[in-house]
C-alpha cells in the first residue's frame, strides 16, 4: 500500500471561491463603500493632487437606463478611476438634463388620457408636474448607475432644473443679450408640426421618406419677346410649399434651352406645340419624365437672359394674383430637376437667403400645427403632410402640372417624435454665428482641443464651419424661459444690467417658474413702464441648457475646475452636447469648456443591428446584472473597441463570462499560494532565478503599457494585454512551471520564496490594474487578503515599478526559451493523445537544438521548464522523424520515457527514487522536505 503524501504538500488555500457569484455579492460591496464613505475618503486622500475632471454629459431624466447609458457611464467610471489610481484627484460629479419636450409630452399624455387640455392648466402647475416627473427619474437612474459600480458625488449631482442651474443658464443667456449675439428674427426654421416647436440641427435625424414630386409650368407674363407665350418649368419634392412660392431662381452662368413639344406619349400632360424652358443639361431628363418623345430646341442661352422675366403663379386668378420674378441664385445646380428652382422664402434656408438678396416677400402660410392659415387661398386648414396630392390635383386642373411622381430620399425627421419636419417661417430667437466672431472663435477652439479619435475634429469642424445661426427658442412650457424684454414700439431688445441683476436674484431664489408667476414690472423695476415692453414667452432650446453645464458645475464648485479635462459622449454629440457647449463657452469665454473630447460608437445587437422592441433584440443592462453581475458588463465595455459601434448579445456576454472566469482563476491561484505569507520571505531581485526576474520584467512592461493606454483611453488594448498576460504568460506558462516548486519544495527553499515574492507583487499589481475595470472583483480579491473596515483596493494607486525590473535582454532570452518549450510540449501532446504517456512527467525527451540555442539554455533546469522528469539536450542534427514546429526552427524533439520510479509525492519519474533510507518511495528532494515535517514514518 502506497503512502499518501498529500498532507506534506504546500497546496493552495484560500476562501476566494472559484465561482464569482457576482449578482449576490456586488450589492454588499456597494453598501460597504457607502458605509465607509469611499468617495469621501478618496477626496480627502487626493485633495492636494493634480485634478482630473471628467465632466458628465447629462442623460435625460425620463426612463430606465438602456444599454447605451450603461456603456457610457461605465466607460466614464473606468477613466475616472484609472486617473485617480495614477495619482490624480479625479472628482466625478454626475448630472441630468431635466427640461424639454419628452418630459412635457409625458405630462400632456396624462392629460389627454384624462380628457384635459394642457393649455387649460395653469403653466406653473404644469411645470410643477414636469419637475416632479424629472425628479422621480433622476432618483431611479441614480440607483441604476450606482448598481453599475460607478463612483461619484451621488449626494450632490447637478441637474439643469435646480434653481442655481436655471439662474446660471439665464445668466449665460443674458451675456449673449448684452454682447449683441442674441437677436430676434423671422426666418424659416426646422419645425415639427407634431411637437409644435422649432428644432435645432442637433435634434434632427435623417430617414428615408417617400415624397410626391411635381414638374410645374409657370406661365411667362412679361419679359423679352422670345419668352412670351412660354412656360418656365420647376421641379419640387414638396408640393405643399407651392402656396408659399414667390419667385423662381436660375443659375446666372448655366446653359438653358427653350424647346417646343413636337410629340408626346399617351398619358403625357405635355401639349404639342407648347414652349418651355429648362437647363440644357437636364433637357433629356425632363422630356423623359414628362413623356415628351420629340421636341425642337428653339432657343439657347445663359441664365442671365431671364433676369427681367416675370411669371404668373400657377394658381393665378384663385387668390395668387401676384408676379413671380425670376431671380439669380448661386444655389441652383443641375444635379436634379429642371435647372429652375421653385423659391418659397418661408420654407427653406437657401430660399430665404436668396429672397433676402432680391427683396422677395417672406409670407406666413403655415401655422404651428402644420395646417395652412385661414388666409391661404384654396388650402386653408389643410395639413401640409396630407395635401401634397391635393396640390398636385389642383395644379393639374389649371393645366400647370407637367408631371407627378414619387421619390424615396433621405429627409429630416425629429429624433424624438420621428415625424418628418418642415421648414416654416417663424419669429424666433437666435444667437448669431458672425456677431463677436463666434464661428471663428469656435473653429480655433476646435483646433486647440484634443480629439479621441482624431477624426472627431474634422466632423465638428465641418458642422461649425457651415452651420446657420443658432435657433435658441422653443414654443413650449417646460424649460428655462428666455428672460428678455423687447420694446413694443421699436422691437429693440432691452439691455440693462440692473434689470438683468433683478432677474437673476429672483431666479436664484425662486427658480425659473417666477418668470411665469410674476408680472413684468417685478423684473423691470421702477425705471421702466411694463406696458411699453413685451415679455418673451418662449423657452430655451434644451441644448442651451446642457451647453451651460460647464458654467454651473465646473465653475461654481471649487472641488472641480474649468475647463474640464475631458468630455465624453457618443458620436451623435458632435451635433449635440459637444457642439452646444462649444458655442456657449466660446460666445461667453472665448474658448471651449474642455481640453479633450472622447467619442464612442453606439451599441448594436450581436448581429450589428440597431436595437428595437419590434425586433425583440433589446439587451437590458439590468438583466445582464441580474444574471451575471455588473463586473461582466464592465468587462464587456473595456474589452470592446468603442471607437466604433459595439455589439452585445447572449453569445458575446457568454464570451465575457469565460474571460472573467480565466481572470478569476488567476487571482485565485495567486491568493491560494500566498496563504500564510510573511514579508520576511521576500528576496531581492538579484537573488532570484531568471524565470522570476523575467516575470518582473513583464510587470515593468505592462506598467508602462497600462499607463499609456489609460492616458489615451484605449482600454480594449489594455484589457487584452492584461488578459493575455494572465492566461498565456502566467497560467499557461509561469504558474504551470512553478506549481512543482510552490507545492513540493521546502517551505523556506529559495526557489519557493522567489516564486512567492513574485506572486505577492503580482497580487499588488493585478488588483490595482484591474480595480478601475472590475471594481467588485478587485475589491473582493483585496479584502480576501487584507480584510478590515477601512481597507479598500480603491484607496490605492497603481504600484510604482522599480526601474531595475526592466531587463530587455532577459526578455529576449526567455522569449526564445518559451519557443523551445512550445516544441517540447507539442511533441508530448501527441504522445498523450496517442496514450503512450498519461502525463508529461512520464517523459524525459531528447531535444536536438542548433548551436545558437546552446548559450540560451545553458544552466537551466529544462525538465522543470518543460514539466518533464528529464530533458536530454543535444546540440546536434536531429533524426528525420523528430517532432518540429515550422515557426520554431532549430528545435526538434524525440519523445523518450523517463527511467526510474515515480516519486510518491511530486510524481516525477526519477532514477533516484528508492535511494533514501527512510522514504524510499520519494525522490531525494521530497524525502528531504518530508523529513523536516511532522509526518509518520512507516515501520
Automatic annotation (TrEMBL):
Cofactor binding summary note: Binds 1 zinc ion per subunit.
Superkingdom of the source species: Bacteria
Positions annotated to bind Zn(2+): 903, 906, 923, 926
EC identifiers of the protein: 6.1.1.5
Residue intervals of the Zinc finger FPG/IleRS-type domain: 900-929
Note on domains (UniProt): IleRS has two distinct active sites: one for aminoacylation and one for editing. The misactivated valine is translocated from the active site to the editing site, which sterically excludes the correctly activated isoleucine. The single editing site contains two valyl binding pockets, one specific for each substrate (Val-AMP or Val-tRNA(Ile)).
Assembly notes: Monomer.
This protein's name: Isoleucine--tRNA ligase
Species assigned in the record: Sneathiella marina
Organism lineage string: Bacteria, Pseudomonadati, Pseudomonadota, Alphaproteobacteria, Sneathiellales
Record gene name: ileS
Amino acid at each position: 500500500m502506497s503512502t499518501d503524501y498529500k498532507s506534506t504538500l504546500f497546496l493552495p488555500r484560500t476562501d476566494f471561491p472559484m465561482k464569482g457569484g457576482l449578482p449576490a455579492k456586488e450589492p454588499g460591496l456597494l453598501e460597504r463603500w457607502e458605509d465607509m464613505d469611499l468617495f469621501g475618503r478618496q477626496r480627502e486622500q487626493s485633495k492636494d493632487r493634480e485634478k482630473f475632471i471628467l465632466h458628465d454629459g447629462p442623460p435625460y431624466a425620463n426612463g430606465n437606463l438602456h444599454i447605451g447609458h450603461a456603456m457610457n457611464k461605465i466607460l466614464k467610471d473606468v477613466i475616472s478611476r484609472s486617473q485617480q489610481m495614477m495619482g490624480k484627484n479625479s472628482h466625478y460629479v454626475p448630472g441630468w438634463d431635466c427640461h424639454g419636450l419628452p418630459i412635457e409630452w409625458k405630462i400632456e399624455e396624462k392629460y389627454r388620457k384624462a380628457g384635459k387640455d394642457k393649455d387649460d392648466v395653469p403653466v406653473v402647475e404644469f411645470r410643477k408636474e414636469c419637475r416632479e416627473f424629472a425628479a422621480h427619474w433622476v432618483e431611479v437612474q441614480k440607483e441604476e448607475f450606482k448598481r453599475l459600480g460607478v463612483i461619484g458625488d451621488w449626494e450632490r449631482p447637478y441637474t439643469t432644473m435646480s434653481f442655481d442651474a436655471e439662474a446660471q443658464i439665464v445668466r449665460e443667456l443674458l451675456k449673449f443679450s448684452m454682447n449683441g449675439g442674441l437677436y430676434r428674427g423671422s426666418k424659416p426654421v426646422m419645425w415639427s408640426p407634431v411637437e409644435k416647436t422649432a428644432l435645432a440641427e442637433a435634434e434632427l435625424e435623417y430617414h428615408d421618406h417617400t415624397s410626391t414630386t411635381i414638374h410645374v409650368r409657370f406661365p411667362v407674363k412679361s419679359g423679352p419677346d422670345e419668352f412670351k407665350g412660354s412656360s418656365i418649368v420647376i421641379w419640387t419634392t414638396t408640393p405643399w410649399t407651392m402656396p408659399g412660392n414667390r419667385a423662381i431662381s436660375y443659375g446666372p452662368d448655366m446653359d438653358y434651352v427653350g424647346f417646343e413639344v413636337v410629340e408626346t406619349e399617351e398619358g403625357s400632360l405635355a401639349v404639342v406645340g407648347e414652349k418651355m424652358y429648362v437647363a440644357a443639361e437636364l433637357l433629356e431628363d425632363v422630356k423623359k419624365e414628362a413623356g415628351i418623345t420629340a421636341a425642337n430646341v428653339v432657343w439657347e442661352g445663359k441664365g442671365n437672359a431671364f433676369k427681367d422675366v416675370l411669371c404668373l403663379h400657377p394658381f393665378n386668378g384663385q387668390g395668387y394674383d401676384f408676379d413671380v420674378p425670376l431671380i439669380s441664385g448661386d444655389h441652383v445646380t443641375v444635379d436634379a430637376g429642371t435647372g429652375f428652382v421653385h423659391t418659397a422664402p418661408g420654407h427653406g434656408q437657401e430660399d430665404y437667403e436668396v429672397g433676402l438678396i432680391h427683396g422677395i416677400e417672406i409670407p406666413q402660410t403655415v401655422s404651428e400645427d402644420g395646417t395652412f392659415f385661414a388666409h391661404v387661398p384654396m388650402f386653408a386648414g389643410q395639413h401640409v403632410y396630407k395635401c401634397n396630392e391635393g396640390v398636385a390635383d389642383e395644379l393639374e386642373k389649371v393645366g400647370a402640372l407637367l408631371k407627378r411622381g414619387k421619390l424615396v430620399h433621405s429627409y429630416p425627421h425629429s429624433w424624438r417624435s420621428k415625424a418628418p419636419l418642415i421648414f416654416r417661417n417663424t419669429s424666433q430667437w437666435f444667437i448669431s454665428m458672425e456677431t463677436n466672431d463666434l464661428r471663428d472663435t469656435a473653429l480655433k477652439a476646435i483646433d486647440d482641443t484634443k480629439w479621441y479619435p482624431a477624426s472627431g475634429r474634422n466632423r465638428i469642424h465641418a458642422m461649425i464651419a457651415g452651420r446657420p445661426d443658432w435657433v435658441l427658442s422653443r414654443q413650449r412650457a417646460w424649460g428655462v424661459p428666455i428672460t428678455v424684454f423687447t420694446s413694443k414700439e421699436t422691437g429693440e431688445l432691452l439691455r440693462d444690467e440692473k434689470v438683468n441683476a433683478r432677474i437673476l436674484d429672483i431666479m436664484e431664489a425662486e427658480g425659473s417658474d417666477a418668470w411665469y408667476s410674476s408680472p413684468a414690472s417685478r423684473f423691470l423695476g421702477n425705471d421702466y413702464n411694463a406696458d411699453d415692453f413685451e415679455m418673451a414667452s418662449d423657452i430655451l432650446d434644451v441644448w442651451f441648457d446642457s451647453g451651460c453645464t460647464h458654467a454651473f458645475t465646473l465653475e461654481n464648485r471649487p472641488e472641480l475646475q474649468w475647463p474640464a479635462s475631458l468630455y465624453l459622449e457618443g458620436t451623435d454629440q458632435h451635433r449635440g452636447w459637444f457642439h452646444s457647449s462649444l458655442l456657449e463657452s466660446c460666445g461667453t469665454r472665448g474658448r471651449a469648456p474642455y481640453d479633450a473630447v472622447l467619442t464612442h460608437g453606439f451599441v448594436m445587437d450581436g448581429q450589428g443591428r440597431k436595437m428595437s422592441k419590434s425586433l425583440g433584440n433589446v439587451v437590458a443592462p439590468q438583466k445582464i446584472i441580474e444574471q451575471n453581475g455588473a463586473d461582466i458588463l464592465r468587462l464587456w465595455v473595456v474589452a470592446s473597441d468603442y471607437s466604433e459601434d459595439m455589439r452585445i448579445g447572449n453569445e458575446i456576454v457568454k464570451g465575457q463570462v469565460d474571460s472573467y472566469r480565466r481572470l478569476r482563476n488567476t487571482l485565485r491561484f495567486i491568493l491560494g499560494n500566498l496563504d500564510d505569507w510573511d514579508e520576511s520571505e521576500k528576496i531581492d531581485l538579484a537573488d532570484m532565478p531568471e524565470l522570476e526576474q523575467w516575470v518582473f520584467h513583464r510587470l515593468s512592461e505592462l506598467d508602462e503599457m497600462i499607463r499609456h493606454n489609460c492616458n489615451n483611453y484605449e482600454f480594449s488594448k489594455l484589457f487584452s494585454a492584461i488578459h493575455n498576460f494572465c492566461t498565456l504568460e502566467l497560467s499557461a506558462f509561469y504558474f504551470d512551471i512553478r506549481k512543482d516548486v510552490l507545492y513540493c519544495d521546502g517551505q523556506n527553499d529559495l526557489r519557493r520564496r522567489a516564486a512567492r515574492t513574485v506572486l505577492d507583487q503580482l497580487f499588488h499589481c493585478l488588483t490595482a490594474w484591474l480595480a478601475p475595470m472590475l471594481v467588485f472583483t478587485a475589491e473582493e480579491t483585496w479584502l480576501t487578503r487584507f480584510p478590515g473596515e477601512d481597507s479598500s483596493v480603491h484607496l490605492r494607486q497603481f504600484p510604482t515599478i522599480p526601474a531595475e525590473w526592466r531587463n530587455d535582454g532577459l526578455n529576449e532570452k526567455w522569449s526564445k526559451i518559451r519557443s523551445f518549450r512550445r516544441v517540447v510540449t507539442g511533441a508530448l501532446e501527441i504522445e498523450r493523445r496517442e496514450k503512450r504517456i498519461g502525463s508529461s512527467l512520464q517523459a524525459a525527451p531528447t531535444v536536438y537544438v542548433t548551436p545558437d540555442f546552446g548559450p540560451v539554455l545553458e544552466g537551466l533546469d529544462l525538465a522543470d521548464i518543460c514539466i518533464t522528469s528529464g530533458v536530454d539536450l543535444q546540440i546536434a542534427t536531429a533524426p528525420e522523424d523528430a517532432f518540429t514546429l515550422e515557426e520554431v526552427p532549430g528545435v526538434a524533439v524525440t519523445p523518450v520515457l523517463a527511467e526510474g520510479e515515480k516519486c510518491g509525492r511530486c510524481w516525477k519519474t526519477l532514477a533516484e527514487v528508492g535511494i533514501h533510507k527512510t522514504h524510499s518511495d520519494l525522490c531525494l528532494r521530497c524525502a528531504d522536505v518530508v523529513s523536516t515535517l511532522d509526518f509518520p514514518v512507516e515501520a
